[in-house]
Every structure is written in C-alpha cells, then in structure tokens.
Amino acid sequence: MKESIRYLSLCGLLGYGYAPVSLKNALSGDLDFVGVDAGSTDPGPYYLGSGKGFVKRLQVKRDLELILPVIKEKKIPLIIGSTGGSGAKPHVESVLEIMAEIAKEKGLQFKTAVIYSDLSRDFLKEAAQGHLTGCGGAPDFNPDNVDFLCNPVAQFGTEPIIAALKQDVDVIVAGRCCDTAVFAAYPILHGFPAGLALHAAKIAECGALCARPVGANDSLVVEMFKDHFTVEPPNPQRACTPDSVAAHSLYEQPDPNCFYEPEGKIDLSNCTFEALSDRKVKVSGSRLVPAEKVTTKLEGTRLAGYRSITIAGLRDPSAIRHLSEIESGVRNAVAESANFVKENEYSLRFLRYGLDAVMGKLESSDYPLPQEVGLVIEAIAPTQEKADALIGLARSKALHQGFPDRKATAGNLAFPFSPSDFSGGAVYEFALYHITDLSLEFMPEIKVIQ
C-alpha cells in the first residue's frame, strides 16, 4: 500500500502549453503518473457538434511530444481526459493520430487504453422516457431531437479510468469525462480517501491556475497523503499561497464550501490551507459525502443552421445615438427583400461593441455614448448560401439606412476588411445538457500505437 502519491498536472488544458523548466523540475522527484485535462464545454457547442478540436493540432502535438518520451522512460502512465476538446470519437481519434505520428517519429511504442464515451441512439431513446433532468437551467429534453443529435457523449467519472489503470497501460486516452476523474482515479485506486483525492483533482485539473502569477498554461505538482495533500508549481516563477489555493474553490462553483461529482458531494466546509513554504500549500479536511444515486451528465448538440457575419465601425454620433432605429429599419428592409428564405427560418443579430454588445439589456442606459462603436451583424439561415445572401442584404441596408439628424446619404459604416462579409459555417446548439439516472458502462479498449 502506497503511503503517498506524487503526480504532475501537465497544464490546464492539453495544447495550452507548459514551461519546459516545469517538466524538468517535476521530474527531479519520483512521479506516479501524469495527468492532463483536454476538454471543456466553455467554447460552446460548435466543437462537440462538428467533431473538431478548439485547440489546434500543432498545439496538442507540442505538448504531447515533450511528455510521451518521458512517461515511457519513467514507466509511469499518462492520463488524458475529454480528449480532443469535447471527447467524442472524432476528437479521440484525432489525438490518437497525433500520438501515432509522434511514436513513429521518435521510435516509440505505447500500450494505450482508449475509453470512448459516445452514446447510442437506443440508449438516448430510453433515457428520454423520464430519465433526463436538465442541467444548469437546460429546458426539458425533446425526444424528437434524439435522431438529430451530433456526437452525443456521457461525462463519466473515475470508474472507467480506474478500470483502465488496472490493465497496466502507458497511456489512457479517455473520451468525455469529469475533469476530476483524470487526477482522482489513481489515488482512489490505491486506497486514498476519495474526498481528498477529488478535491486535489479539482485544483490540479486547471494546472497552475491556483498559483500566482495565475495561468492555465503551466504545471502543478500534487502530493497525496492519507490525511492531506500538497500543491506546488514546479516553475520557480510561480508560487502557491493559502489564499490562492483557497480562492480556487470559487472557480466555476456556486458554493465555495462544496462541489459535486458523480461520486457525490465533496464537502470543503472544514478545509484548512496551510503554507509549508513560500511556494507550497498543505490542504486537509476535505471529505466525500457519497451520492445516494449514481447519475451521469450527458451532452449533445444539434445543427441550428449556418452563419455569416459582417464587421463595421460607426463614428457618426447621430448614427450611434439612433442605432436601435437603424437596426429596426434594417430588419424590416431585409424581411421585405429576402424572398429566398422564410421569416421563421433565419435570424439577424446586431452586436454593438463599445455600447452594449457584452451585457445587452442588462447594461445601464445612463452612461455617456461612446465616440466609436464596432458593429457585428450576424445572420443564421438553413444553408450557407442563404446566410451569405442575408448578410449581404443586411450590410447594404445598414450602410444606407436612414436615421434622425442624418447628414449624408451613404457611408454610415466603415468596413475594416474587403471582402466585408465572412461565411462562418455550421452553427450548433446544445440540445442535450442533462443528467441521467440510468447506468452506463464504458469498457476500455486496449491498442498499441507504434
């Protein structure tokens, strides 16, 4: 039985990068494993729906080609979670291809466990019969959407990764999973308290984000003991303090005293944060309150249409003062001219940067008007051709739209680019963002990459 476990969180997200000195310093002591989270829903539904990664291939390859020879030499596992950004099969396969390329270039072989988290239509149809609860304010799931879902996945916990670790592999490439599962599976497998393991994992999955200066583009070393854990950045330019580590409990959480994982509630109300040096912090008191019923979060998107945008600037104070009237006039003019698309099949959106583009109607209306406004007009339609035509109409109408106190007949907008219009491609929206109480099994597949 291990008395302690020392592991490395490579960086906050695979492809975000990490300093070579961090890897060198982390390797100055023994490591039991290296983990890295590779995905998130933060960039929105496009990446899950399209099967593409939001971190570019060259970024991912850079991070992997530094660490893969190390874990092979040291004979320690590398665990990658939510591989490829969204964790569906296309994302997983894209990273496996990068690994195979690195293995060939460096003359390496890896025994790899692959855990796919993709959902079958049959399972989803069963889940839609009263076994789905909206997550984060999501509306009730429409069973009619099952056949239209793109790359639906389940966000699993530690159990599939524990099963893969038992098979003595070099690398675990996991589909969509909880960020904590990447780092908590190994300690839980070796008998460490789940509450401590999951709390440490919650901090570790963000890399050096709990250190100062803050950044997800660097590494963190975690040491697990039976009654506490420690965190320390291997980069000498960063430091963890009790305040910086405790503050991380607020990251992405509505309650600083607890957070929830498939395993249950992690209670932080009795946690203590103690400085062991000017760079290293000891954490104790975390405990797990096991879930009464096992649940799993499901994610899936549907194609919502195709996007086209145009970008322009406004400098005329009268135009800025009457932007709402200009917008309304453009909408009406487009509706009159767009006989190639039904009114309920498209949308036009106006984002007024410098005025209220970020907060929208929540923005106060009593501040002085800005001297300049950046205007982004977006059209979404059933086809790219129709979206392109709509944005062309909207742009030309906005360029010549009348408004009170207007002094010119044209030139209301300044376009920074030629062409002024950009085809944005497919648009996806979340249609499945729900919790299910149905049991799911994910069996690791073993393959050798060479």
Number of helices: 12
Number of structural domains = 2
Tell me the fraction of residues in β-strands, as a range. 25-35%
Tell me the number of strands. Answer: 19
Overall pLDDT level: 95
Main sheet record: 10 strands, mixed
Q: Which regions have little confidence, pLDDT < 50, spanning 5+ residues? A: none
Residues in helices, as a percent range: 25-40%
What is the rounded Rg?
25 Å
Distance between the termini: 33 Å
Write a structural description:
This protein has 450 residues and is of the alpha+beta class. It folds into 2 domains: 5-117 and 156-292, no CATH class; 303-430, Alpha-Beta Plaits, CATH 3.30.70. The chain has helices spanning 20-26, 46-50, 57-74, 89-106, 121-127, 159-165, 179-189, 194-204, 242-247, 317-321, 323-337, 384-400; strands at 5-9, 33-37, 78-81, 110-115, 132-134, 150-155, 171-174, 220-224, 229-232, 258-261, 264-267, 272-275, 281-284, 287-290, 296-314, 347-353, 373-381, 421-436, 445-449. The strands form 3 sheets. It has a 10-stranded mixed sheet, with helices on both faces. Strands 5, 6, 15, 16, 17 and 18 form a 6-stranded antiparallel sheet that branches. It has a 3-stranded antiparallel sheet with strand order 10-11-14, covered by helices on one side. Strand 12 (272-275) and strand 13 form a beta hairpin. It is globular, with a radius of gyration of 25 Å. The protein starts with a strand and ends with a strand. The model has no long low-confidence stretch (mean pLDDT 95).
